[in-house]
Amino acid sequence: MLATSQLNASEEESESESKAGTGSLPFEPPLNLDRKSLVAVKICEHGPKGGASEDRVEMSLKRELEIMQSIHHPSLVDLKAFSIEPTRAILVLSYCPGGDLFDVATRHRELLSASLLRRIFAEVVGAVRYLHERHIVHRDIKLENVLVNLTPNELADRSIDWQTYPYSVTILTDLGLSRRVADDEKLTTRCGSEDYAAPEVIMGLQYDGRATDAWSLGVLLYALLESRLPFDPPPGMSDALRMRSRTSHRIARAEWQWIKYAGDDTDHDGDEKKFEAAGLLGAMEVTEGLLQRARSRWSLEKVAEKEWVSGGIAVEGGMRFREEMEGEII
């Protein structure tokens, strides 16, 4: 849902006062929100009408809100205001006119030039590392949870140097499954999308949330490169074999392959030649480093050190929030 902020002062104060007593969490009015700027409104139903345990949902919302209030990064969701009511929660978030990365990767695949793909992945890695540095794991990284700040027409502008473009191109959102963790804490809850779940999660083992976030980033990068998910049945697989080889089994074995970028000679050198020709050799290396079992998987620190990632953003003074482009106060 979209909304436009255009309340006058008295209406805004009245709205704040009327909602403050409707739930256990008070309404938080936007402090610097332009009164005529578009925002996204997320409504979460809970309680008797919402169909979920009110206490459980409220606890989850408290955690999500606490985390969102504690972060401030150009490529992370920005909570502008919220209200908790008896049967629903209302979150006012940044509006991203380009939809999500799944839409871009499926409907506008031709827009993902090598330089834009590199920039997008570098931004998402930076956002996830920012969370990890604050002992927060996301646990639901996927194309649908990466929003795009630019419209397809803007993404198609070939005059833009994506390496030096000053504003964030993407926003990592949906922190509903995120949580804080201690340095060596292992998690057990199986959550998020199975297509992006790491082998250790699929097998019901204890897992390091940072390492499973890294795996999900590998799935995301593969999907951007190949326009398919890595553990979907390979083209040409018979129906009988599809029935015997479930997605979860392939994930547990970390069994995947390049399709679009597979070399003609079926060896790895052939893969490299295709990636090199497309200007994406670094992307191949990072994907292969991330889509490994936990003991061999690259950390995000190692990923960030790779030139293909570290050189993806070169903005003097640091990347800026999209709203700054429109003169809004952040």
CATH class of the largest domain reads Mainly Alpha
Q: How many β-strand runs?
A: 8
User: Number of DSSP helices?
Assistant: 15
Mean pLDDT: 85
Cα shape: globular
Our measurement of the CA-to-CA distance between the termini, rounded to an integer number of angstroms, reads 22 Å
Low-confidence stretches: 1-27
Structural class: alpha+beta
What number of domains? 2
Q: Roughly how many Å is the radius of gyration?
A: 21 Å
* CATH architecture label of the largest domain: Orthogonal Bundle
Which strands sit side by side, in order, in the main sheet?
1-2-4-3
Report the sheet with the most strands, covering strand number, pairing sense and barrel closure: 4 strands, antiparallel
CATH superfamily of the largest domain: Transferase(Phosphotransferase) domain 1
**CATH overall fold name of the largest domain:** Transferase(Phosphotransferase), domain 1
Strand content: 5-15%
Order of helices and strands: EHEHHEEHHEEHEEHHHHHHHHH
Percent helix range: 40-55%
